[in-house]
Please model this.
Amino acid sequence: MVPPDPTLPRRRVASPPTTDPQTRAEALAVAAKALRSAEHVCVLTGAGISAESGIPTFREAQTGLWAQYSPQELATAAAFASHPARVWQWYAARRASVRVAQPNPAHLALATLAQRVSHCSLITQNVDDLHERAGSRDVIRLHGSLMHARCSNGCAGSVLPTDEQHGDPPPCPTCGALMRPDVVWFGEPLPMGPFEAARNAAVACDVFLSIGTSNLVEPAASLPWISATHGATVIVVNQSMEGQRKGPSILPLEGPAGVLLPRLIAEAFAGRRPRRQAE
Ligand code: BV8
Ligand code: ZN
Model:
């Protein structure tokens, strides 16, 4: 657990939910009330928010050719070093499925949320581009992007790879080393800028909305608890609360994000005009 940073200003402590809601409707009403009164909302999304767009979650069993591997085995620099074509093709197959997928009502609800609150920080662990395609801007990407590739030797810049699912990774146009997916693999450090921005938002927000994540992968998994220790209300939206932390400042909303998020945003901001029109 990361101790609160004493140098950071303590903030108005959003009161944790006063009632212990028995029903989903009550939980939704308590969550909507917390959202409506929040100045700064911080959102963290995981693979579950893209599930209703048809993108398998990270922990769901892999299908077809990839059924024989676990994502953790493929999403590492060691796997790429030993089997570059296999890893490159796994990402190409995932990229192709993202390309034909559409943002679902959960992604769209978050784009609406950003127009309703004074300050909304959207952090994603996902590597698909569905948040951006739903209209969200300034997405804080902790684990990179499936839709880009970069030089495995560290040359500057990234390219938009094709969905060519066969063959080897292409060579870097600058130095000839293999291009690699522009994602953060297990055992690799997160990009400093995005993680700092994510941590600062978690500390500063009044409400932390955790959506569709098993909260198992660090250091992203610590963000909701950093927020809770700084007085925020943590709303957890997940298909299942199994394995999810409980606590006085944690408000569980169990169900599919594509159903719950539109309802939550509608209930929280009924009658409130958009703060700024989508550009
Ligand atoms: C780091 C990009 C340090 C790639 C990803 C040993 C050695 C080294 C590190 C470690 C180690 N042991 C532990 C670690 C730390 C490690 C880690 O946390 N491992 C875990 C497995 C224990 N972390 C790291 O390695 C990180 N780096 O620590 O570096 C360092 C520092 C300095 C110098 C060197 C090193 C890097 C982690 C990033 C890995 N890359 N993605 C790719 O995508 O291919 S992580 C990847 O998995 C995803 O991005 C995501 O973050 C994670 C999956 O989590 P979820 O998104 O939560 O998805 P999941 O399937 O688990 O759950 C889905 C949820 O949705 C479920 O709860 C489900 O109920 C719910 N759901 C389903 N449908 C719906 C729904 N909810 C709502 N509605 C629905 N419809
Ligand atoms: Zn290069």
In short: The pocket of BV8 (ligand 1) is lined by residues 46-48, 51-52, 57-59, 72, 75, 125, 127, 143, 183-189, 212-214, 216-218, 220, 237-240, 256-258 (CB under 6 Å). The longest strand covers residues 144-151. The CA atoms of residues 228 and 234 lie 6 Å apart. The domain at 24-52+103-143+190-268 is CATH 3.40.50.1220 (Rossmann fold).
